[in-house]
Amino acid sequence: MAAKPVSKDQNKGASVMLGMLWRDKFAFVSAVVLLIIMAFAIFGPAFLGDLATSQNLRGRNSPPFDLSRGWMFVLGGDSLGRPILARLVVAAQSTMAVAAGAVAMSLVVGAIFGLIAGYVGKTASQIIMRLADVIMSFPSLLLAVVVLYVLGPSIPNMILVLAITRIPIYLRTTRAEVLEVRERMFVQAAVVMGASHRRIVLRHILPVIAPTLITIATLDFAFVMLAESSLSFLGIGIQPPSITWGLMVSQGRPYLNTAWWLAFWPGLMIVITALSLNLLSNWMRIALDPAQRWRLESRKSTDA
Q1: What's the pLDDT tens digit per position in 45-66?
Q2: How many Å apart are CA 68 and CA 7, to the nearest integer?
Q3: What is d(CA 200, CA 186) in angstroms, rounded to the nearest whole number?
Q4: pLDDT tens figures, 142-166
Q5: 187 and 201 in contact (C-beta within 8 Å)?
Q6: Which of 17, 189, 259, 296 is in Cβ range 3.0-4.6 Å of 61 for a Cys bridge?
Q7: DSSP bridge pairs for 83
Q8: What is the C-alpha separation between 112 and 182, in angstroms, rounded?
Q9: CA-based angle 85:90:93, to the nearest 5?
Q10: What is the 3-state secondary structure of 63-115?
């Protein structure tokens, strides 16, 4: 009996969020685009993996919108006669896996150390923040180039090096939020009532700062994806036979004058994904902030 009101409240909250998302058309379209890309990343290799790697030299550099070789060549063929559409779908998995893994790792590690730095005390805070300053003193792409050159290009190494470069962002944000939230009345009341430090951090502070971290992670996802594409474009990222959008752009660079579509379509996918993430992040920044949410809720009365 006690679980039913919670379930109803959760369903009501989800419907309210979906309603606000629907009223913001740019954010809604962005969410749909990202869901389609995620579906490509999850199911694409299982259905199109063989087609994306099979070579057909008779169809090399096939022009786009020519269906004489089948609908899979609607976006053209690459220098080895492989359909670009199938390769775009399959490449979404590696691109999204690297970005999602790096963002998740940096979010978890940065949030944990940020909570410690903001709640424990000055000594721990100074040590952790100085380590963050050391990481931030190196340009992120330069650090990634050096580490990948030493360790070798692979998906786990790519996730590790990109996560390390992004940890200070979540660490500093979490610490600043904790320093502000811990002085609020409800946290002070929990301290007076004898709540443990673990309970205060996990039940009172973390839920308040979580929306901010989620919003930053959504925006950071686009940055990490662009960083991975840049490293793949430079030739030190994911290596063949694996496929990423950045690697496809790099492979199509020598053919820009004769077969522009080899680099154009993967570049367009990078732009569309990054733009969708930025638009959705902007919506989440408002929707998850109780002080700003009225701007989205007021659109209901305006549309009516």
Answers
A1: 888 888 888 888 777 888 888 8
A2: 54
A3: 10
A4: 778 788 878 777 888 888 888 988 8
A5: no
A6: 259
A7: 77
A8: 16
A9: 140
A10: CCCCHHHCHHHCCCECCCCCEHHHHHHHHHHHHHHHHHHHHHHHHHHHHHHHH
* 290: amino acid identity, one letter: P
Span between the terminal Cα atoms of the chain, in Å:
37
**Among residues 288, 274, 243, which one has the least CA distance to residue 33?**
274
- Residue partners of 33: CB distance under 8 A and separation at least 6: 272, 273, 276
Q: Answer yes or no: is pLDDT of 2 > 50.
A: no
Report d(CA 229, CA 245) in Å as an integer: 7
Q: What is d(CA 113, CA 117) in angstroms, rounded to the nearest whole number?
A: 6
DSSP H or E stretch at residue 257: none
The two structure tokens encoding residue 238: 């994911």
3 state DSSP class of 240: coil
Vertex 211, ends 26 and 42: CA angle to 5°? 60
Q: Of 30, 29, 35, which is closest to residue 281 (Cα–Cα)?
A: 30
Please give the structure tokens belonging to residue 112.
């944990």
147: which residues sit within 8 A by CB, 6+ positions away? 157, 160, 161, 164
How far are the Cα atoms of 11, 114, 158 from residue 131, in angstroms, in the given order?
42, 12, 21
